[in-house]
Amino acid sequence: MNTKFRLALLVAVALVAVLGFSVVNTQVQAQDYSGHTVVLGYAQYITDPASGEAGGITYFRSDLGNGQLAHDFVYNDPRAAWDTVPGISYGVKTGFQSSDVNLTNQLSWFGESFRVWERLQCSGLTLTENSVNPSSPGLVANFFSTGVLDIGLVQADVTQIGFLGVSSIFPPGTSTLGVTYTLFWTDANGNLTDIDNNGKVDAALREIYYNDQYEWADNGVEGAQPSGPRVFDLPTVAIHEVGHGLSAAHFGNIGTRSDGSLVANPRASMNAIYGGTLRELQGRDVGSHCSNWAQWPNN
Description:
Blueprint (H helix, E strand, L loop, with lengths): L1 H17 L18 E11 L8 E4 L11 E3 L14 E5 L13 H13 L8 E3 L9 H8 L11 E7 L11 E11 L14 E11 L3 E3 L13 E3 H12 L7 E4 L5 E4 L17 H11 L6
Parallel strand pairs: 3-8, 4-5, 4-6, 6-8, 9-10
Antiparallel strand pairs: 1-2, 1-7, 7-8, 11-12
Helix pairs in contact: 2-4
């Protein structure tokens, strides 16, 4: 059940607090970035509708918990040492693939999920693929294991880490299919920053993980099978998670069917629950993305 996933997130929240990331106010532009580092902000996750539990968002800092604190990436951020271009970079790790038999092109879909969003012609947003270490752990997974936020592990603004089985991110029995973590920049005093003075907290990076306790496919197989577990369409979930990576939130009303499973309406890539194969962005997805990025790089 997804309560196990939420419990794991609560443990992470406690770990953040123990390590001294206090609740503070947003600060104005800093002149010296040498003491700036990153802090866990929140996690957004999509769920298996058969669980009866909808996906959602978990905040790791209570000053972000009202969901109203605007935030975004900083164009040409001087602290993002991993970037060689001023816009948004992404990476795809190759060392965390699933062995599920119906996955025939998973790495290609991890990359294509970015291009699905980039092809929307409503902003100046361009995405650049960075070369990343194929097998080094994600910063978030490493943090859950060691208690250390090692910024040296970061090689792109948004990274498809890949699949993990039973782990600190995906406890046994969780109904979470995929999760995107957002981290923010803080100054030497632990204050959230706004160095470009646009009234928005500075997002530092995002990482995306997929739950390999489920059965996945990218070859058209989907849903209940004559024998074996239900199968979930990876491209559908990857496009959803990259939406989070590019600042899209969940939307759609969640209802309950007679069998206790959940359904979202209207249908969209950014629904909080999996609703079957959907590899094309819908009107609400497009509207959200265009609203977020229409003024880039000045947003």
